[in-house]
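Researcher: Please predict.
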Amino acid sequence: MKHLLSEQTAVPAGHGALDSLAGAGGRTAYLAGAGGCGMRGAAAWLLAEGWEIWGEDRAGLNPNDPLLVAGMKPPGPGHALPPVSLAIRSAAVPEEDEGFQVALSSGARALRFSDFLGEVSRLRHVIAVAGSHGKTTVASWIAFGLHRAGKDAGWLVGADVPQLPGSSSWGTPGSPLIVESCEFARSFLAMAPEQVVLLNVDAEHPDTYPGGLPEVQEAFEAFLASVPATGKVFAGPEAPDLHKATRGEWEKVAPLDADLSLGLPGHHNRRNAALVASVLASLGLTEDDVLAALADFRGASRRMETVGEWQRALVVSDYAHHPREVEATLQAAREAWPGKRLVVVFQPHQAQRFHAYRDQFAPSLDEADSLLLLEIHRARDPEEVRASVEELIPALEARVPGRPLAGPVPREKVESRLGEMVLPGDIVLFLGAGDVDNLARNLA
């Protein structure tokens, strides 16, 4: 296969890859929800291409925010803006948002963040990382391998990565862009990637896929259909056989040798690493550089991230919120800290997800030695959908009789209840996609 990083093309001065997106307002844009990780990446890309951008976020932006330091401007009072060409909003910002509507009234073209990624994928060579689980880890691992080898590719990943200079980079025009492509609400269907890295396909996002796994797989098949005949799909060891859905080349990636050294623990990361190795090799990295990337990478934030110590125990935060992810994280923790007790603080995310996968949550927590449950973090849940983590307790008690178990525990009592459970040398693992991470960092 041709090595894409050896085929970079120069872009004449004053002409950027995103120039075709400019409208009557020139190379200008307004970003609603600019504080989110994906939107930060969009802002950084636009700034790298010389665009003038304005942005704001409902949570507010610190005056020393890196985006403001880099040149993004806050709108004036009342969201006052000059005419801009693009108005881009994150998935968390509704279309009726006041600042977004002000931008549209100036003549801006409306884009969701996913639409913006779709536009970029038609202007740059995009390698899209797709899957129900593991997208951030694999995309950032590939970006790390390229950066470590001195390749000026671009990327956009959904978390901070301590070993990268940022969660996004535009890279050299003409080089590939490594991006996550999210299946939530079928947003990845806006993209037209040249290549896809397919990790897995699982029942997830029950709020937008009420039909379960068949509906999710149908969306992935539609996404793979966008890969051109000249493109390629790297299918991971646990990816389903969807080769008939794409016109591109289908490469089923073989598992790694069992004795190969990796920088991340866990069976799931060994599967992830097989994909990373294949993609990096296809981009022209030497075998030595590929092996070094696999061994040296330490992961993205909130992926088994050690955040400090408390009561002589190690405090770890992880984003796992789907039963498959919870089980994988606990297995990886056993591998990383053999012989240590795992005290798990778990906060389910979304009442709809809790309802849909209720029977899977209790088995996913079997490896916890002690368990503290927080109430469900509601997000995008209809008011009529009610649930409580208390409903899990009978199944948890039946599966591991006698295990220390507390819940639902109010936030203000988490520290005192943990004090009854934690011993020196324990691993205190906070799991969830909600605000449970704040508890971990405040504790440590």
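Model: The first strand starts at residue 28 and ends at 32.
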